[in-house]
């Protein structure tokens, strides 16, 4: 996509700040998430005998997704073109990318939905975790080797998703009910591709590059323990959220899948951003994210039934997580010039 991005960036005015381009692209994904939340809050609109999402929404989603992807590709080129590249810009870009994972996954989910013709909410929950861990692997690799490897599969997936939105607007969601290969449905292909790409390309490549650096004594950290330390908080977050899902008295994931996904994705973005800061500043990654400390009693209150209204608890905790993540981002941006000068 670099030739296309090189072509697009020439049309951008030189006064346009790269960080504004990054933020605008991110907001297109948020807008997609909000649009589908309005028309398909509980992921049932694509099922048979349900009122489907209007075709114009899928057209808008396809355009917005491609614009977000394009702006994410040209922001760095705009920075180099205007001699305004900064570490803050890199942090801002990757930080928003980590949060964007949940927005595009949830939006794509609305194509298939959750009922007979769709993907179960629990299956999508685990697919979301595959996507999240695939993202953090690239930054974990850079934390250990100093090199950020971004697989070309990301480009293919984004262009494909944009096209699928547009195709859905033309043929309708009913098209995805039909088998695409023998008796396998498109939903099966969707799940299969994400899982296979993660476990056969992203994970092996990252592990190989880190182990290669360890054997050649070019690993940035003193031991394999230090190298794998950044995975502690994401794994604990997975354990806590999965405990809530499995032992929920009211089956919270079935009741409020969109909000639960949003909570998990935002908490994961917060953990990932702290790794990105450590990776860029060449500092040791903290073993435990503070956000997991209050989450532990929240999960205990939920699974033990002490709090009767589990949905209200989820909404309140999601609001706390979102506000905490925004506060962290704003604080880092404000303190960044101080770190640079010192």
From TrEMBL:
Catalysed reaction, written as an equation: CDP-ethanolamine + a 1,2-diacyl-sn-glycerol = a 1,2-diacyl-sn-glycero-3-phosphoethanolamine + CMP + H(+); 1-O-alkyl-2-acyl-sn-glycerol + CDP-ethanolamine = a 1-O-alkyl-2-acyl-sn-glycero-3-phosphoethanolamine + CMP + H(+)
UniProt GO cellular component terms: endoplasmic reticulum membrane; Golgi apparatus
Pathway: Lipid metabolism; Phospholipid metabolism; phosphatidylethanolamine biosynthesis; phosphatidylethanolamine from ethanolamine: step 3/3
Taxonomic lineage from the root: Eukaryota, Metazoa, Chordata, Craniata, Vertebrata
Enzyme class (EC, first level): transferase
Listed transmembrane segments: 20-41, 53-71, 91-112, 119-140, 189-211, 223-247, 259-277, 289-308, 314-336
EC number(s) from the headed UniProt entry: 2.7.8.1
Membrane topology classification: Multi-pass membrane protein
Principal location: endoplasmic reticulum
Cofactor: Mn(2+); Mg(2+)
Localization annotation: Endoplasmic reticulum membrane
UniProt KW Nucleotide-binding keyword: no
Cited function: Ethanolaminephosphotransferase that catalyzes the transfer of phosphoethanolamine (PE) from CDP-ethanolamine to lipid acceptors, the final step in the synthesis of PE via the 'Kennedy' pathway. PE is the second most abundant phospholipid of membranes in mammals and is involved in various membrane-related cellular processes. The enzyme is critical for the synthesis of several PE species and also catalyzes the synthesis of plasmanyl-PE, a lipid required for proper myelination and neurodevelopment, from 1-alkyl-2-acylglycerol.
PANTHER family referenced in this protein's UniProt entry, alphabetically: ETHANOLAMINEPHOSPHOTRANSFERASE, ETHANOLAMINEPHOSPHOTRANSFERASE 1
Name of the protein in its database record: Ethanolaminephosphotransferase 1
Gene name, Swiss-Prot/TrEMBL: selenoi
Top-rank taxon: Eukaryota
Keyword entries, A-Z: Acetylation, Endoplasmic reticulum, Lipid biosynthesis, Lipid metabolism, Magnesium, Manganese, Membrane, Metal-binding, Phospholipid biosynthesis, Phospholipid metabolism, Transferase, Transmembrane, Transmembrane helix
Family from the record: Belongs to the CDP-alcohol phosphatidyltransferase class-I family.
GO molecular function: ethanolaminephosphotransferase activity; metal ion binding
Gene Ontology terms: biological process: phosphatidylethanolamine biosynthetic process
């Amino acid at each position: 996509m670099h030739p296309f991005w090189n072509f697009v960036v020439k049309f951008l005015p030189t006064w346009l700040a790269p960080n504004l381009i990054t933020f605008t692209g991110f907001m297109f994904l948020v807008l997609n998430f909000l649009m589908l939340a309005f028309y398909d809050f509980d992921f049932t609109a694509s099922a048979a005998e349900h009122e489907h999402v209007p075709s114009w929404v899928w057209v808008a989603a396809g355009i917005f997704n491609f614009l977000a992807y394009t702006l994410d590709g040209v922001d760095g080129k705009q920075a180099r073109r205007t001699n305004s590249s900064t570490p803050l810009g890199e942090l801002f870009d990757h930080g928003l990318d980590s949060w964007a994972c949940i927005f595009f996954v949830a939006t794509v989910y609305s194509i298939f939905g959750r009922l007979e013709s769709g993907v179960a909410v629990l299956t999508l929950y685990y697919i979301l975790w595959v996507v999240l861990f695939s993202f953090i692997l690239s930054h974990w690799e850079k934390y250990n080797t100093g090199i950020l490897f971004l697989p070309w599969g990301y480009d293919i997936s984004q262009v494909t998703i944009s096209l699928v939105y547009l195709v859905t607007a033309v043929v309708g969601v009913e098209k995805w009910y039909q088998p695409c290969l023998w008796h396998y449905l498109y939903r099966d292909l969707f799940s299969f591709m994400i899982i296979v790409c993660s476990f056969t390309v992203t994970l092996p490549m990252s592990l190989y590059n880190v182990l290669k650096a360890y054997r050649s004594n070019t690993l940035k950290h003193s031991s394999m323990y230090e190298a794998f330390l950044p995975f502690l908080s994401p794994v604990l977050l997975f354990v806590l959220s999965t405990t809530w899902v499995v032992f929920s008295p009211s089956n919270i994931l079935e009741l409020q899948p969109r909000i639960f996904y949003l909570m998990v994705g935002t908490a994961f973005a917060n953990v990932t951003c702290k790794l990105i800061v450590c990776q860029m500043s060449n500092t040791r990654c903290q073993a435990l994210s503070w956000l997991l400390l209050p989450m532990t009693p929240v999960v205990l209150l939920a699974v033990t039934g002490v709090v009767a209204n589990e949905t209200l608890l989820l909404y309140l905790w999601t609001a706390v997580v979102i506000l905490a993540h925004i506060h962290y981002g704003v604080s880092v941006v404000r303190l960044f010039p101080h770190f640079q000068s010192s």
